[in-house]
Every structure is written in C-alpha cells, then in structure tokens.
Design brief:
Largest sheet: 6 strands, mixed
Number of helices: 5
Shape: globular
Radius of gyration: 14 Å
Order of helices and strands: HEHEEEHHEEEEHEE
Strand order of the largest sheet: 8-6-2-3-5-9
Structural class: alpha/beta
Number of strands: 10
Length: about 160
C-alpha cells in the first residue's frame, strides 16, 4: 500500500508519527480541508503530468489551478495530466493520495510558488485519507523537489 511506503520513507527521519490518518476521505482539496479543519488553500495538492516520457508532479496550493500558458512556457509542452491508471503505475500512488514522497524512480517533483504564502501546508501521504503538516522548508527537504515553478493561477489576491 502507498501509505505504508510513505510511512517507511518518513520513518528514516523519525517523522512517521506526524502522518495523520482520517476516518473519512481526504481525496479532494475540499474533503482534506474538512478532515483537517483548515482552509482549502493550505492543502498542498499534488497533480501528476507527463512531460514527454517523464512523469512530473506539481505540488500546488489547494486554491490554485494550472495555468496552461504558464505551464507550456515552463515545460515546453501542453499540460497533460496522467490518467488514474497512469498515476498509480508511473508515480506509485493512486489518485486521491498522490504525494511527492516515496515516488517511483524518475519522477520529477516541482513546487508551485502558490505554496510560499503559508508557514505550513498539508500534502497527502499516499492514501485517500492521510496528510502530514509540513513547513515549506520541510516540504522542500522531503519532497526531493527539482525546482520552484510558477505554473498556477487564481490563487493571488487581486
């Protein structure tokens, strides 16, 4: 199970006890926010894409949406999300629990700047009823991210 892989991953840092598991689904931003009693924008959703043959994860704030023009400018290709089957196979986590931890080899992780406005955020932990609260420096450290990107819209205050 994916959550077991994520628990084992965090165990090497003595952090597996920080993983939260809920009796309800946290598979969407709204459900995760309800389970955590927090604002939806603080949910760090992980979106899975294919850039050529490379599986790519973009971790973004819960209120952010992919901006196709920014995405194409950054990755030189159209934003094409993986199907649920592809995500499970190529990322190593099922949709609803996709996270940047304990992923398959070759997966590239990017953090969207929409997250930088928070002290802590809540990414999933490999299942549709889990999360962990991490500071932004912790998210950088444990996600194995490649770079910060600006590929989202609708999250900035006008």
């Amino acid at each position: 199970m994916s959550i077991e892989k994520v628990k084992a991953y965090f165990a090497q840092f003595g952090m597996e006890g920080r993983i939260l598991e809920f009796p309800v689904s946290s598979a969407t931003v709204e459900l995760a926010a309800q389970a955590l009693h927090c604002e939806p924008c603080r949910i760090a959703k992980t979106l899975s894409f294919a850039v050529g043959d490379t599986p790519v994860l973009i971790v973004a704030a819960g209120d952010a949406r992919i901006d196709n023009h920014k995405y194409k400018a950054r990755f030189a290709t159209k934003a094409k999300m993986l199907t649920p089957e592809q995500a499970a196979q190529r990322i190593g986590h099922a949709v609803g629990g996709v996270c940047p931890f304990a992923v398959q080899p070759g997966v590239e992780v990017y953090l969207d700047v929409s997250l930088k406005r928070f002290d802590t955020v809540f990414p999933a932990c490999g299942s549709s009823n889990s999360a962990i609260e991490l500071t932004i420096p912790e998210l950088e450290q444990y996600s194995g991210y490649k770079d910060w990107v600006d590929v989202c819209k609708d999250w900035q205050a006008e």
